[in-house]
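Researcher: For the annotation table, I need structure tokens for Glycosyltransferase. Please keep the output clean. Sequence:
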Amino acid sequence: MAGREQHGDGVRRRRVVLFSLPFQGHLNPMLKLAALLRARGLGVTVLHTGFNAPDPARHPEVDFVPIHETLPDEATSPDSDILRKLLALNAACEAPFRAALASLLRGGGGGHRQDVACAVVDGQCYPAMGAAAQLGLDEPVPDLEPLRVRDLIRVDGCDTDELCGFVASVADGVRASVSGIVINTFEAIEASELAKIQRELSLPAFAVGPLHLLFQTPPAEQSLHEPDHGCLAWLDAHPPRSVLYVSLGSLACVDHGAFEEMAWGLAGSGVPFLWVVRPGSVSGAGDEAPPLPDGFEEEIRGRGKIVKWARQREVLAHEAICAFWTHCGWNSTLESICEGVPMLVQPCFADQMVTARYVTHEWGVGLEVGEVLERGTVAKAVTEVMAGEDGAQMRERAHRLQMQASAATSSAMDSLIRFILSL
């Protein structure tokens, strides 16, 4: 499409439309990509749901357009599992996404059809990918090492056939609808995987990450929780590489038994720790912050800090942090790699299983907490990653990856811009 957006300087810009799942771990990379595209001279429109909507005031140079979806309770309830959420969101967003995108292409909202070069759609929004293709726009075995069967994408408690159907729909949507794939990664850690994507799908794959390192001044984060502003001051009072940071991200949750084993394992390890216990992080607790076990706060007084949310990148960059207990969401994993911080891995669902296996067995920068949490095993794993010989070796490898991440250039972003302008 050949037109360009008119600006005060008389230059017309090609426009990119972005659409993400309404979860923090999906929205933040999408908004970083939006800012980078905008900084490279492209117009950017973000289509978004009303649920967990981004704050336009934090991104004044980006246009935000709601799709006006109506979501069922299972898409938004903290007690519904992730597969239920994904299926409900995809079903509910397909028609309103199509209508909003069609309106943009007709010139609704101040745009013009010829301004839009392409749409970048979240890889798990397969109906949206199909809708973009049908409207004239495009948007992600034999050899699976180092993965095992248990590392493949799964959601415990969900119907296996439904999950396989969802994954197949995503793959079919990619093959049928997209012109290229944008991935928040870098060649040094996933060169063979990127080559396999390009070979098997016959599509260009743009490894544009780590996105958050490409800014001199990073844009505002989309956060669903107010961060505790005392975290950094608390860390300042601790020696270098002495504190374990614990966070299972913005969406993952554990059952009450696992939560208690985490707590008493941390207490039994004897190490200082900063633990993010956000509302909704324990299944069945709804939107409330789960109560800590009786006697736990007395046991860890002066050694542990519990917060509802933290500014994770700032925490990971702090010299007091020694290791990161993580669910292996991709944003958390990449941020840990970029700060040279080794990981304790506790994947909860979906692609986190795959990422955890790469962290521990491909890159060698992490240690498994254990698929079944038990306080004694937890304490042993924490002690090993913080002070053991394996932990020291993982820290050295994490530092090497940090150097490679810092050396990643914007050449893939340059290639992506050229590709967009060629559409």
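Researcher: And a one-line annotation?
Model: The radius of gyration is 22 Å.
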